[in-house]
User: What shape does this take?
Amino acid sequence: MKLINNILITGGAGFIGSHLTPRLISEGCKVTIIDNLSVGKIENIKQWLNNPHFTFVKGDLKNPKAILKAIQGSQIVFHLAANPEVQVGETDPQIHFHENLVATFNLLEAMRKSKTAKTLVFASTSTIYGEVTILPTPEDYAPLIPISTYGASKLGCEALTTSYAHTFNLRALILRLANIVGPKANHGVIPDFIRKLEANQNRLEILGDGNQKKSYLYVDDCIDAILHATKTFLKTKRKVNIYNIGSSDQITVKRIAEIVTEEMHLPNVNFSFTGGVDGGRGWKGDIKTMHLSIEKLAKTGWKPKYTSEQAIRLASQSLIREYRS
Assistant: This one.
């Protein structure tokens, strides 16, 4: 199935957006990106700047006029823009409120006023579930009790999105993503470890007790899942649907550290665990164990190519090359 031709990606110069853009262009779509470049980088999309099927708008979703300009003529909106740093919520929770909730509200308002943009694909997060009693965690798990302001802001975005879909005749696909890793990623555990090891090849500080255990999905698998879920959704008449997107297994932070040091050819690194907070978490709001059920999306014909460990190794190889180039 071919996607509708005109597409807007918010935060498209960021990690996931810069991988989604070439896939959409290769399928014959016309892609517009709006990004304020606070997290994203123009280098991530520079190869498309002269492509007739691509438009870049430097703009901020907190500015309603910028969104109205970017959204003109678009039919599907992939909403990837957000502040992704969970830790920042501990020191400045307003960032998550403005960058996630306010930005999403403004986008939904623009879609309400638009004559064409009536389908939203929203990149949500596993953190909306909070601490769970069921692993792997299915989409209908309840109650949803996020333990970080990031997770809370994303859950608020989900609620706004579903309410706008039902009130203003929009359609919304919500994708709850696990930890996505791969080339061009500039935050998260792998870039953190690489930066620390480049500064000191003998010692690696690891936040928490190292036993945090989560799912990691390679970005190519993520893009495949996003496109598959979107095409599946468009074939239906549902107003709202929700899918988890993640890997089929988990990996510990300690094992990630081992893989990164192996790929950097540093055999004698001393791991220094901070001990963390609240029972070994890396920081306040860090979910210690996460494993999403991907059974719902798998039943429609998608499954990841890589395990969590394979994803971490592939991502480490590419990010080390990027860091050293």
